[in-house]
Amino acid sequence: LSKKVQAIYLWWHKPVIDQELLQSLPNLKVIANSGVGMDHLDLKLVASFGVKMANAPRAVSSSTADTGMALLLASARRLVEVYYIAISSSMDFCEADILGVGVAGATLGIIGMGSIGYKIALRAKAFEMNILYHNRTRRKEQEEKAVRATYCKKIDSLLQQADFVMVVVSLTPQTYNLIGKRELELMKPTATLINISRGAVVDQEALVTALQTGVIRAAALDVTYPEPLPRDHPLLKLKNVIITPHLGTRTDKATYMITEEAVENILAALNGLPIPSEVLPS
Amino acid sequence: MWYHKPVVNKELLQSLPNLKIVASSGVGIDHLDLNLLSSYGVKVSNTPFVVSTDTADLGMALMLASSRRLVEGYEMAVSPDTEYFPADWLGTEVSGATLGIVGMGTIGYKVAERAKAFEMKILYHNRNQRKKEEESAVGAVYCKKIDDLLQQSDFVLLAVNLTPQTHKLIGKRELELMKPTATLINISRGLVVDQDALVEALQNKTIKAAALDVTCPEPLPRDHPLLKLKNVIITPHIGSATKKTRLVMMEEMSESIQAGLAGLPVPHEVL
Questions:
Q1: How big is the CA angle at A255 (ends B155 and A236), to the nearest 5 degrees?
Q2: Where does the record place the D-isomer specific 2-hydroxyacid dehydrogenase NAD-binding domain (chain A) (predicted)?
Q3: Inter-residue contact A247 to A67 (CB < 8 Å)
Q4: ipTM score assigned to the predicted complex
Q5: What is the DSSP string of A120-147?
Q6: Which of A103, A156, B17, B117 suits B140 as a labelling partner, its CA being 20 to 30 A distant?
Q7: Which of B88, B90, B187, B246 to mutate to test the interface with A (most CBs of A within 10 A)?
Q8: Domains annotated on chain A, with CATH
Q9: Distance CA B212, CA B104 (A)
Q10: Does B117 share its domain with B199?
Q11: What is the pLDDT along chain B (271 residues), one digit of tens a residue?
C-alpha cells in the first residue's frame, strides 16, 4: 500500500509528517495542506525527499476574517458573560455591571495585513473603526485608502494607540512570541487582544499575567498553544478571556473550498503541472 | 424612566399632579400610552439616534456568534471534559450569505452597511421603500412582500419598532416560510415574535437557530423552554449597553427634562 501513495491531504495536521513516514512512502509526490498555515511542517525535510507542498490560501480568508470580527464584537459587548447572566437561575444582576465598550470610533490595530488582515480591515471600516496596521511591507496607497488604514512601521506605535489589537500573522521564527510582556505593557489598559493567527505568536504566560493584573482589559483567542489547552490552564479560568476552539475555518463552505483547493493542487502535482498554491521552503 | 420603570398608568398620573415630562431611555416607546399621557398634559421624550450604532453592532455580533457557534465553542474550549476539538464540528459562513432585514430604519440601515462589508446579499422589507441611492449604497434589494424575504434569507434580522402592526409579525406562518437552515435574530422587541411559535419552530427544526436580545417578558421566567434550547443565544437586552452610549442617553434625558420643566421646546419629544 505504501508504494501506491502519491499524495497526502493533510487534515488538521494529521498524519504527522516526519522522516519515518516520508521514508516509508517512496512514491509520494505532494502534500496538500487544509488551511493556510504551514508552521506544523518541516518544509526543508519534506523538500529533501523531492515532495512538493501546497496550502489553501484563498479558501480561508473570509471565514477567518469573520471569526476575527466575531471575537472582537463578542469581547467588546461581553457576549459570553451576559449570555450566562441571561440564562442563569438567578435573575439578579446590575445593569451597570454588564456594560460593554463601543466599537464605532474605536481604533483597531491589525498586525499582519495579508489577505485575512485586509478582509478584516474591510469589515472593520463598515463598523466605523479607525484602522492602523503593521506589516513586514507597506500596502499600496489605493489599498490603504480603500479601508482608510494607516501604516505603523513600528509595532510599538500601533500597540500604544489601539483599543483592539488583532493578530493575523503567519507563524514563523520571526513572529514567534511576537506579543510578549513588552508588547502587552505598551498596549492601553483598556485594550483587547484578539488572536486568530497561531497560539505561539503570543507569549501565553505573559498574557496570563497581563490579564490578571489589568495590564490589558481582555483577550479573545481562537488559537492557543497547545490546542486544546490543558484543563488546568489559567487562561480557562479568567473572566476577561474568550477562548474558541480554532473556529477560523470551521464552516461548511470553507471546508468545501479548502478541499477543492487541495484537490486542484494535488492533481496539478500528479500531472507534473505548476501547482497553484505551492509552498517552497524559504 | 429607565427600562420601562416605573410603570406609567392612570393611577400614577393621578397621583402626580405636577408631572410635566416623562423622559424615556432608549428609542422604543411601546411601553407608554401616549394618548393617556397627553390627556394629562405630560410631555414625552426618548433618545432615538444615539442607540442605533450599538444596536446595529449587537445585531451583527449575534449573527456572527450564532452562525459560528461561538458560545457552544467557548464551552467546548473551557470544559473540563474536552480532550480534543473534533474535526467535523462546523458552523455556517456569514460571508456571502443572504441577510433579510425586516425594518430598514436607522438601525436596520446601519446593519446593512455592516453586512455589506461581509459581502452579504441584502434583502429588506419596510413599510416604505428606501431611496435608490440608499439602496445602492448597501446593495439592498427591496422585498415588498415579507414572504419573499423570508423564503430567500439565510439570516432574518428584526429591526422594527413595536406597534399594533408589528405585534407578532413573525409567527408560525412566517417561521414556516423561512429556510430550515435559517437563523432568526431579534434586536427589536420580544412581542414582534410569537414566542410560543418560535419555541416550536426551533424544537421541530423548522428553522435552524435564533439569537434574541429581546424577549417577552424580560427576563424570561427561569423555566422557559427558550433558556434550554441549544440552538438559541439570549442576551439581556444589551442593544445600547456601552458606557459611552449610556452616558449620552443620560445627557439627552437630562436635557429633555430641563427643557420640559422650563416650558421650552423639548429635544427628542415624542408626539
A1: 80
A2: 69-248
A3: yes
A4: 0.95
A5: HHHHHHHTT-EEEEE-SSPPPHHHHHHH
A6: A103
A7: B90
A8: 2-59+250-279 (3.40.50.720), 60-243 (3.40.50.720)
A9: 18
A10: yes
A11: 887 788 899 999 999 999 999 999 999 999 999 999 999 999 999 999 999 999 999 999 999 999 999 999 999 999 999 999 998 999 999 999 999 999 999 999 999 999 999 999 999 999 999 999 999 999 999 999 999 999 999 999 999 999 999 999 999 999 999 999 999 999 999 999 999 999 999 999 999 999 999 999 999 999 999 999 999 999 999 999 999 999 999 999 999 999 999 999 999 999 8
Check whether residue B142 and residue B97 sit in a common domain.
yes
Which candidate in A227, A233, A250, A278 is catalytic?
A227
B112 shares a domain with B200: yes
Q: Which domain holds residue B257?
A: 10-49+242-262
| Cα–Cα distance measured from residue B202 to residue A50, given in angstroms and rounded to the nearest whole number | 53
- The reply to whether B167 and B246 lie within a common domain is no
C-alpha pair distances (Å), B238 with each of B231, B241, B247:
20, 5, 14
For residues A233 and A170, give the distance between their C-alpha atoms in angstroms, rounded to a whole number.
Answer: 24
Nearest-neighbour CA in chain A from B228: distance (Å): 8
Q: Do A62 and B80 touch (CB under 8 A)?
A: no
DSSP state letter for B266: P
Quick one: B14 and B137 in the same domain?
no
C-alpha grid cell, residue A128 = 466605523
Rounded Cα gap, residues B108 and B40, in angstroms:
34
Query: Known catalytic residue: B93?
Result: no
Q: How far apart are CA B188 and CA B54, in angstroms?
A: 13
Q: Quote the number of domains for chain B.
A: 2
Report the distance separating Cα B82 and Cα A228, nearest Å.
8
Only one residue has cell 484563498, namely A58
* Residue listed under C-alpha cell 517512496: A26
B41 and B95 inside one domain:
no
